[in-house]
Fold:
Amino acid sequence: MRLTLYSHPLASYCHKILIALYEAGTVFETVTVDLGDPAQHARLLGLWPVGKLPVLQDTERNVTLPEATIIIDYLDRVFPGPQPMLPADPDTCLQARLWDRFFDLYVQGPMQKIVFDSFRPEDQKDHLGVAEAGEQLRQAYAMIERHMTGRVWAAGEHFSLAECSAAPALFFARILQPFDPAQTALDAYFERLLLRPSFSRVLIEAQPWFESFPFRDRMDARFQPSVPT
Structure:
């Protein structure tokens, strides 16, 4: 297989790549990396010394790329789909990149702070940092609400890089910090993301792993992992 994606089913930045791959219909294989396994972690470090997921390998071009946004940029150029994730119009593309950064930095970032802190021993928890992360999410939601009022997608008329970032970021953030009921534009945007076949597929594939998510008890019933009977 030419393309290999090193990822984990619960990693939101890996979800971001999968959305782009499914949107384009690109053929690839996935290698699931357990960062808690020393051998698997060592293999990842050999690919990308920072040791973070996702990482994409293209054997034909002898290219190894980390960082979700960079990977999508590469995929859009080398494996273009029917609808580019980076809009052709320069101004719209700039907006797509802006909102990609927004969702990564101001939704993903605080969300991950809260999740990672939950794994710490009680005497090492950063209660102030978690409270600040919750406030950052509320501020981000307010900005998204204003921006999405009267819009279907975050940048231009089509699904783009911005949505690849928004979908997993909002999915997990909403579990930790629910939307305000008055934020109807934000909620409608989130529901549109859920209906997108590419993201729906990502969630279906991730669902068996949700059992390991530390805030699973807060998830909507529609996302809860199935319990065998």
Observations:
- Helices lie at 12-24, 38-47, 68-78, 90-117, 127-148, 161-176, 184-195, 197-206.
